[in-house]
């Protein structure tokens, strides 16, 4: 049988479904670290999955992909690879690893060959919110702390959103320009959760990328930090990818 995704890209039989993958690798995006995955982690662990959280440095795409590939290499079987936001670029590049059986995008960039965060945000749709990114300092970016909650975590409780703003990880400008060479979604089953209230990546852009990837797509109310505010919805999609036949 010639397996193909909805976009017509061929899938080999070995990659047509994740075949009961029990290993989940979670990749965070820019401005944050892996601690935001805690709610999703707890649900997946309770449901019997082996969960690893990548602490990628967000300094360059190459560095972040290398860290992610090391995490994949440590797994003892098939892997579902999950990326949030910029983490979607990382999993698109790292997800071609033979251990990866499916890639899951959570309000994430899902670039095609040659695309980067910089190219994907170059021409925002009219009326789209403008993320409050401050001018770079020494090659790194931060979000305006005073506007962080509204832009990134509008549905997260105030104390947690404040902590996220104050514990930001500097995002390297070089990471934004890193271009994907062979997107994993062209050869692996893909899944996408659209955050309908996202003020960082416009929902229409999320829907476009999900459709282009031929991803199994769900949509839920939620900010860009939907993985923090709605961990049950995020975990449900990951488990769908892990158990798909």
From TrEMBL:
Domain AB hydrolase-1 residue range list: 24-236
Keyword annotations from UniProtKB, A to Z: Hydrolase
UniProt keyword Hydrolase present: yes
Pfam family name, one: Abhydrolase_6
Molecular functions (GO terms): hydrolase activity
InterPro entries: AB_hydrolase_1, AB_hydrolase_fold, Sec-Metab_Biosynth_Hydrolase
UniProt-recorded name of the protein: Alpha/beta hydrolase
Species of provenance: Oleomonas cavernae
């Amino acid at each position: 049988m010639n397996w193909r995704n909805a976009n017509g890209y061929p899938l080999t039989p070995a990659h047509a479904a994740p075949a009961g993958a029990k290993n989940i690798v979670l990749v965070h995006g820019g401005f944050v670290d892996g601690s935001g995955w805690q709610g999703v982690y707890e649900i997946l662990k309770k449901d019997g999955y082996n969960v690893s959280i990548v602490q990628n440095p967000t300094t360059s795409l190459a560095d972040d992909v290398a860290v992610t590939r090391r995490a994949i290499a440590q797994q003892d079987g098939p892997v579902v690879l999950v990326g949030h936001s910029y983490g979607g670029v990382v999993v698109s590049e790292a997800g071609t690893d033979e251990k990866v059986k499916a890639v899951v995008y959570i309000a994430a960039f899902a670039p095609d060959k040659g695309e980067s965060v910089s190219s994907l945000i170059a021409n925002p749709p009219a009326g789209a919110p403008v993320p409050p990114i401050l001018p770079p300092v020494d090659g790194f970016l931060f979000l305006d702390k005073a506007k962080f909650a509204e832009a990134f975590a509008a549905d997260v409780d105030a104390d947690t959103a404040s902590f996220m703003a104050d514990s930001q990880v500097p995002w390297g400008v070089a990471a934004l320009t890193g271009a994907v060479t062979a997107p994993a979604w062209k050869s692996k089953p893909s899944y996408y959760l659209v955050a309908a209230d996202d003020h960082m990546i416009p929902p229409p852009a999320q829907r476009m990328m999900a459709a282009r990837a031929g991803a199994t797509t769900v949509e839920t109310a939620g900010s860009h930090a939907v993985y923090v505010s709605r961990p049950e919805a995020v975990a449900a999609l990951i488990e769908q990818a892990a158990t798909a036949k």
